[in-house]
Design brief:
Strand content of chain B: over 45%
Distance between the termini of chain A: 33 Å
Low-confidence stretches of chain B: none
Number of strands of chain B: 11
Oligomer: heterodimer
Largest sheet of chain A: 7 strands, mixed
Helix content of chain A: under 10%
Distance between the termini of chain B: 39 Å
Helix content of chain B: under 10%
Largest sheet of chain B: 7 strands, mixed
Mean pLDDT of chain A: 96
Structural class of chain A: mainly beta
Mean pLDDT of chain B: 95
Shape of chain A: globular
Order of helices and strands of chain B: EEEEEEEEEEE
Strand content of chain A: over 45%
Number of strands of chain A: 11
Radius of gyration of chain B: 13 Å
């Protein structure tokens, strides 16, 4: 069974930089999986931050960036702010247009 | 302004069929470049993709749910529907509909909580 793994939790100091990752148990994550990242606060629907590895969605601050680091997709927040405290999910687009979400990372600022 | 609004029963009995509707405003579901997805989130847990409707007769479903799921469209009322058969308590979740418009899941509805219980 294919599984997407994220760090369950992470902590960053205000103003600091944090990198969250997204791994695939069956192999390396590459741009061909079109990794995307979503931010969710309690009681709200998710919001798309990054898609196609590193394209920022509209109205997303440039302190959020996406990349491939080694064999994982990565979301980096530079200059973290208090309102970045959220759950973050990655999603990979697999063959046959199916989608697999990671388990999410709870970020504390 | 695109808006998606999920609606349907908040309580479904085990073994019955969960049926939800997503009413879309500000965009036509007929447009061939727009796709429509259902995603769910059990209480306190992560997101799970259920399926994506591309066009009439063309949908993709989560393999783990494929035998129980149907996503369809009613263009006359600009709605996307989700049917999930033979539900169990494990299907209790907030169900979101979302739009794919170049950007995966560009717009999301607020979600609707469906509980499965007798």
């Amino acid at each position: 069974q294919v599984v997407v793994t994220q760090e369950p939790s992470f902590s960053v100091s205000p103003g600091g930089t944090v990198t969250l990752t997204c791994a695939l148990n069956s192999g390396s994550v590459s741009s061909s999986y079109y990794p995307s990242w979503y931010q969710q606060t309690p009681g709200q629907p998710p919001r798309t931050l990054i898609y196609s590895t590193n394209t920022r969605s509209s109205r997303v601050p440039d302190r959020f960036s996406g990349s491939i680091l080694g064999n994982k997709a990565a979301l980096t927040i530079t200059g973290a702010q208090a309102d970045d405290e959220s759950d973050y999910y990655c999603a990979l687009f697999l063959e046959n247009d199916t989608v697999l979400f990671g388990g999410g990372t709870k970020l504390t600022v | 302004q695109v808006r998606l609004q999920e609606s349907g029963p908040g309580l479904v009995k085990p073994s019955e069929t969960l049926s939800l509707t997503c009413t879309v405003s500000g965009a036509s579901i007929r447009r061939s470049s727009y796709f429509w997805a259902w995603i769910r989130q059990p209480p306190g847990k992560g997101l799970e993709w259920i399926g994506t409707f591309f066009h009439i007769g063309e949908s993709r479903y989560n393999p783990s749910l494929k035998s129980r799921v149907t996503i369809s469209a009613d263009t006359s009322v600009n709605q996307i529907s989700l049917n999930l058969t033979s539900v169990t308590a494990a299907d209790t979740a907030v169900y979101f509909c979302a739009m794919v418009r170049g950007v995966p899941f560009d717009y999301w509805g607020q979600g609707t909580l469906v509980s499965v219980s007798s």
